[in-house]
Amino acid sequence: MASESRGVHDELEEDEEEEEEEEGRSAETASLVIRCGQMSDSSVHPSRHRGGLWDLAYAGNRLAPATLHILSVSPTSHRPNWRTVLGLGVRPFELSRESTGEKGETGRCFHMYVPHLVRREFLLNGNTDDGELPQVSRRRLVQCPVIQRGQSRQNRGSGFGQTGGRYSGLRMRSGLWEFCDLSDEMEMAARWLCVLLWALCVGPRPCAAAPFAAGPHPERVPRNKLLLISFDGFRWDYDQDVDTPHLDEMAKDGVKARYVTPPFLTITSPTHFTLLTGRYIENHGVIHNMWFNTSTQEKKQYYMTQFVDSYWDNGSLPIWITAQRQGRKAGSLHFPGTAATYRGETVGLKQVEPRFYDYSNETEWRQNIDKVIGQWFRRRDLDFVSLYFGEPDKVGHKYGPDSPERREMVRQVDRTVGYIRDQIRHHGLARRLNVIVTADHGMTTVFRGPPVKEIVLSQIPGFSFRDVRFHLVDYGPTGMLLPKEGKLEKVYRALKGAHPRLHVYKKEEMPARLHYGKHPRLLPIVLFADAGYVINGLFPVQFNKGEHGFDNQVMDMKPFFRAVGPDFQQNLLVGPFETVHVYPLMCHLLGIRPEVNDGHLDATEHMLKKAVGENESQTANTGSSIVVGLSAVTGFLLVVFIAATSHTLYKRKSAKKRCTPSLTDMLPLLVKRKTAGKPVSEDFSLIVPPLLFR
To answer: Which of 66, 85, 522, 525 could cross-link 138 (Cys pair, CB 3.0–4.6 Å)?
Structure first.
């Protein structure tokens, strides 16, 4: 018997190979022979067998067609008397009726296929030695994944229509049912029931962009990609004294803000991390460009601070990590914070600039753009990338914000924006990629020479660095001091009011609007100067012609903002807003649930083609209405289906037919098929997994 069943198996495989060669298919197939409920050989292995229920894990690519041959062998004749060929393909929803049989005999068979929702195949194998089931073509079944019951060629004299419901079944795979040999009333009810059950399975669900839906992994729906670009130090009005055709075109095609307001302290690392987290600096903890240790007196400059994980990983997750944890793919090129690890996780694709990098090289700018647009977005299919350019900050510091060199650098930035948009169109991403272009801060001119009275702390009467344990000064217009034990009040009183352009605060007394007084990393005394002035320690050592780091209410500290893409309105000029609100906007565009943040989506939603609140409200209302309506109609049709089934079964019982399905088994979606006068081993059963409760 074993050798014979193997021969039949080989015969089936040969037939299948011939059919695949005929149709030019290259997809892999998997074969399974089940003999009287036992499995003999297979490349698809069952994970368990429970009460006749085989839970088959489909090996290999689940999107490639596979074929299962299910063969029953008669215990008396040891000959195959029926076979079933099951195709596992991916086709759209199908609903069809088919007549099968030979010599004119016909029977009704009802199919329903719903696209993939799960990765496993649930199959209940039954035993029968009846030889009265029709033969079915395998070629069609590979294309349309349904179960058919077959009749052997030796027993084709008895038609399917003559069995009177002898072999009826219900099967489900990711929403696939088959009802065989139904009465007209049952067939009509079954058709409508399955359509509505399918709609409930794959119908409307809560919008993944509902930013704040419960659960760590909001269900993903197709979303456009997002590119965040920062041009360091690009002040809000830099395009007003230079011809910038590409920035102007971007404003016409998208959104332009009059200006945006960065958080205080207006320097590179803290403000960029606010863009990435939506948190004010006192909340995310990246309080300065420099990492420092008050105990060891150690300080690290901007570049080396990028590699101090503990400095960046301080409780606030950047959007890269949040996106990756919710199924998106993220990358970052040169953006501050890229090199760090956050709770054991880094950005998926990253590139950190070398230590002595030339931030002004336009050729390297274009190479970086080609990498981000052509490789990361196009080939690697990333969802979000942050891209950083170090200009015009460098020339603004060196030559001043009003210099010809700064104006020339703005022209370079404008050419770069044009190149970015050209590459987006070249790679076919214009309808799929949103682009936000902004900056971390602005720039202002530093005052020097007579009659300017510079701020030099060592020249202030009553102040001495001997009373200070640690200091962070000589870094633009801001500074922090850690007085020695018992010296806090002395140092504070000496500095308070000592210079008309110097502002001195105990950190707990910092103005609340600055959001720069609550983090434990902040030192007890905080200093900042008026626009145009810098704070020197022992003697003047700062010679930049341009500087930033001032109060964020100073207009020269405001950066620019542009946005364009499929989700943004066109030719829209909007009023100013804080950059802390960019984070929830980006989360909405990516369809991810934000971390705790200080921003508000309602500050930017008017930029979008459709208001967020209106869109989510309409989606939620529509989805709820559809689900409620379908549920009500489904319940009604379920009652009709049960009633029709009861009527048909009553008639069949009265006529003393061989097959009587049990209503009590149908209620929990369990259909049993018993054959009168046959041993229990020949029963046939089908169990439907509770997929509707996913």
So the answer is: 85
- Read off the pLDDT band of 111 (50, 70, 90): very low
Q: What are the Cα distances from residue 684, in Å, to 15, 71, 438, 664?
A: 27, 14, 67, 16
d(CA 604, CA 254): 13
Residues contacting 467, CB < 8 A, separation 6+: 483, 484, 487, 490, 491
pLDDT for position 114: 32
| Fold (topology level) of 455-543 | Gyrase A; domain 2 (3.30.1360)
Question: CATH 3.30.1360.180 residue ranges in the chain?
Answer: 455-543
* pLDDT of 231 over the 70 cut: yes
Q: Within its chain, how far is the Cα of 55 from the centroid?
A: 30
**Cβ atoms of residues 389 and 417 within 8 Å:** no
* Segment 35-73, tens digit of pLDDT: 223 333 333 333 333 333 333 333 333 333 333 333 333
559 vs 163: which has the higher pLDDT: 559
CA distance 23 to 20: 5
CATH superfamily, region 225-445+550-615: Alkaline Phosphatase, subunit A (3.40.720.10)
> Which of 236, 185, 169, 90 minimizes the C-alpha distance to 642?
185
- Mention every residue, 6+ apart, whose C-beta is less than 8 A from residue 147: 84, 86, 169, 171, 178
Tell me: cis bond preceding 392? Omega within 30 of 0 counts.
Answer: yes
CA 625 distance to own-chain centroid: 26
Which segments of the chain belong to CATH 3.40.720.10?
Answer: 225-445+550-615
Task: Return the bridge partners of 35, or none.
Answer: 38
Tell me the catalytic residues. 268
- 601-636: pLDDT as tens digits: 999 999 999 754 454 555 555 556 666 677 777 777
Distance CA 654, CA 666 (A): 20
Using pLDDT thresholds of 50, 70 and 90, give the confidence band for residue 291: very high
d(C-alpha 15, C-alpha 139), whole Å: 10
- What token pair was written down for 52? 């006749």
